[in-house]
């Protein structure tokens, strides 16, 4: 790779009900796949600030930074693309506000046993179970 983009990914987990909040991507990169919430880190933002902003933009909810934890780091490399995606993964078990759909994402809760891995990025089935079992932090390098 000759350069990288710094991105964020937020996983909202309800431990009591054993479920996770995912968003159906309606347009853009990753369209028609279920994923966590996140995106680009803006100039002057930390990865945590970018993750919190993206979560509010895409799902309408906020998280107290005290209840926001770094869970992992994933580096995505794509064949014939010199730009790597450095993705900082965060998790939270608490949020405030009303979950809502936006023009980019449609949030939906999934029981841990019913996560739609066949409609997600291929790497999610590798690292997401680690996160749900609290076997984090983790690091991964994914090749597409």
What can you see in these coordinates?
The chain is of the alpha/beta class and 144 residues long. The protein has helices at residues 47-59, 124-132; strands at residues 3-14, 19-25, 34-35, 68-77, 83-92, 105-111, 138-143. Strands 1, 2, 3, 4, 5, 6 and 7 form a 7-stranded mixed beta sheet that branches. Strand 4 and strand 5 form a beta hairpin.
Keywords:
144 residues, alpha/beta, 7-stranded mixed beta sheet, globular
Low-confidence runs: none
Number of strands: 7
**Residues in helices, as a percent range:** 10-25%
Order of helices and strands: EEEHEEEHE
Secondary structure elements and pairings:
Layout: E1 3-14, E2 19-25, E3 34-35, H1 47-59, E4 68-77, E5 83-92, E6 105-111, H2 124-132, E7 138-143
Parallel strand pairs: 1-5, 4-7
Antiparallel strand pairs: 1-2, 2-3, 2-6, 4-5
Short description:
This protein is an alpha/beta fold and 144 residues long. Helix content is 15%, strand content 38%.
